[in-house]
Amino acid sequence: MILYGKNPEYTYVTDPNRFSDLLALCQRYRMAGAIRQSAIAWLLLFDENPFSLACERKPVTADTVGSLAAFAKADLATLADLFFDLAAPYDLNFVPMDAAEDADSEVGAVAAALAADLRAAGKEGFFETVLSYYARYGVGEFGLHRAFYLTEEGAITPVSHFRKVTFDDLWGYDLQKEQVISNAVAFLEGRGANNMLLYGDAGTGKSTCIKALLNRYYPDGLRMIQVQKYQFVHLSKVIDEIRRRNYHFAIYMDDLSFEDFEVEYKYLKAAIEGGLEERPANMLIFATSNRRHLIKETFNDREGGGDIHRDESIQEKISLSDRFGLQVRFGKPAQDEYFEMVLHLARLHGIEMDRKELLDGARTFSVRHSGFSGRIAMQYILSLE
Predict the structure, then answer these.
(1) 321: number of CA atoms within 13 Å, CB side?
(2) What global pTM score does this model have?
């Protein structure tokens, strides 16, 4: 196998001694159906090779992938023979033990659909069917997952259980949502877009807004990689890995802020703007913070604090925030707005209570906690459930 044989998972569908591994693969991704055929479909979806990556980067037809098509056709003809070899020992139908809804099960559903379409297409239509899936979904982890995080070593890893929040979960803040959505759409369409900083009071929905944005625009190619501030040293490697992929990546930094003794922000400044390497057009920074000025300042800073070049020190601290061209403030709601949030969330969650009783409870709950906010409203609704 010239292209697809490089994937070590290929042994799952050719080595009878790996049957337990193949079962584990089907269970992890909840792939119901013929075990061996599901595994081959999974292999095709995840194998990042020159042909599949070429299909991801440009409109996919047999002509646009050039001479790679000849090699791929030979590989896929061999896989088709294996796919339709009904004498193989893996032609059992697998039924997953549970039907949990997570990112892995979503991928498994795509693999199962591909297996069904390959069966319908037969050997003659095998190649074209694979092309159509690369055109629709892309390939590999980036093609089939929406959210990622970094390991301690800086490896990009899919998030299996991503919150399925939508903009309906965030009542109010219509202007803020409009600004965030407009910037994201411009980014996806290849127009001018800015790094975004969503700042303001705690519990006002900044993170929810970012997650809802990803859930809405994942089908349009938006992907999100969460990076913690102690991982900023890995940013250059992350940027290099995503630069040539045909998706739009939001590097997500939640609750971003720095104490005056922390210096990790220097890596971030260089990654956003100012390094020798040009920032890729398919990447933006999406950050949330309780502070507009991300680096802590004190009155001592303003008074000089022994620093001869006081103004330069101040500029050093505020220059990070200036690199976010779109800054959107989320303020705490007034009491009436808090009550509207409670009523909205109660409808979403099917809570049926007398209006006065519901709002009296919401007021009492806010007093016992930290005041009015969307987070407190959600916590109150969850306490009722």
Answers:
(1) 20
(2) 0.83
